[in-house]
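Next up, sample data.

:::
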Amino acid sequence: MSLERLSRRRVFEGEIVDLYKDTVRLPGGKIEEWDYVHHKKGGGACIVPVLPDGRILMVRQYRPAVDEWMLELPAGAKDRPDEDPAETARRELLEETGCRAETLEHLATVRTAAAYCNEVTAIFLAQPAVPVQAQTLDEAEEITAEAYALSDLLAMIAAGELTDAKSVCGILAYAARSVVY
């Protein structure tokens, strides 16, 4: 016998996510309730913007959920569930950094928390990322852009200083492009 979802009921409706209680039967037959988070837009896009000098443009912003200023790659949610993630990536890169890129290449797709959430983030390489305008931030955003060498970001990941999941995945996916298998 395998794990089986018997039912799903919504217990909270939010602007971005809905929360559900799933009733599941475990392989041994025991019945339990599990939480499920449904991201209404399905997720978004994350961008690895590489400047002409080879540095990677990161953003620093306050995240109330963890009560910390986080260093992250630029990213954002889709405007609608059927939006092409590449469109999301281009928009978020421009809004958060004021940059555009000549090329946008898909690097990876990650499921943020597959154990309890449907959110999917597409990660793109944007290069060369060139400033074309000032940031156009949302009312709730306070973001500063900072440029780092790939080696510095890898060291920050190894030291546990860079912990944002989509950013860690994006930087490692970018670094893996140069590894010969």
